[in-house]
Specification:
- The structure is a single chain.
- With 200 residues, the chain is of the alpha/beta class.
- The protein has helices spanning 2-27, 45-58, 76-81, 96-99, 102-120, 133-138, 144-152, 169-174; strands at 35-39, 63-67, 87-90, 127-131, 159-163, 177-180.
- A 6-stranded parallel β-sheet has the order 3-2-4-5-1-6, with helices on both faces.
- Strand 2 (63-67), helix 3 and strand 3 (87-90) form a beta-alpha-beta unit.
- The termini are far apart.
- Belongs to the Cob(I)alamin adenosyltransferase family.
- Pfam families: Co_AT_N, CobA_CobO_BtuR.
- Keywords: ATP-binding, Cobalamin biosynthesis, Cytoplasm, Nucleotide-binding, Porphyrin biosynthesis, Transferase.
């Protein structure tokens, strides 16, 4: 008898949850591209973005990627996704503490941004990823108003993913979805080397 009562209570709880979820699904009637921001100090922001890219190409979507910060090292996401016609534009200078040349970094960022703007204005792209863009704004390599304008005025169906720590408040304000990834533990802090296929 007690098992039957527990089973019935469980069914009733799940039915209430189902009704709430169904109601929210029914209320979501607008159809448009969205701006997603993956930010925070934890590991996994670019990983989340490229998971979204993989999902998009699995549905036959057209995707463009701009990678700011990335250097000349082997790039696992490029190696896989380029084979599936994902367009990549990679800054290629590496981390700013390695280059230590502000002017060269700015020129490299601007070159990738020009490609980003082109993709953001092109209705053929269903998804545009601006990987590590937040740093370009924090370092004042790119103009925040130009970036905001390009994202806001993109084709209505196009979605955009922005990644990086310390996302600018104006980007957060216009985003539809923001996920902040919080560090709890990181292998590197225990002296474990970054690994191909896991970290890049």
């Amino acid at each position: 008898m007690e098992t039957r009562t527990n089973t019935e209570r469980h069914r009733q709880r799940q039915q209430k949850i189902k009704e709430r979820v169904d109601s929210r699904v029914a209320a979501a009637t607008e159809r448009k591209g969205i701006l997603i921001v993956f930010t925070g100090n934890g590991k996994g922001k670019s990983t989340a973005a490229f998971g979204t890219v993989t999902r998009a190409i699995g549905h036959g979507k057209t995707v463009g990627v701009a990678q700011f910060i990335k250097g000349q090292w082997d790039n696992g996401e490029y190696n896989t996704l380029h084979q599936h016609n994902v367009e990549f534009h990679i800054m290629g200078t590496g981390f700013t503490w390695e280059t230590q040349n502000r002017e060269e970094d700015i020129q490299a960022a601007l070159a990738v941004w020009q490609e980003s703007k082109r993709m953001l204005a092109d209705a053929r792209y269903d998804l545009v990823v601006l990987d590590e863009l937040t740093y370009m704004l924090a370092y004042h390599y790119l103009d925040i108003q130009e970036v905001i304008s390009s994202i806001v005025n993109r084709p209505a169906h196009q979605s955009v993913v922005v990644t990086g720590r310390g996302c600018h408040s104006q980007l957060l304000d216009i985003a539809d979805t923001v996920s902040e990834i919080r560090p709890v533990k990181h292998a590197f802090n225990s002296g474990i080397q970054a690994q191909s296929g896991i970290d890049w």
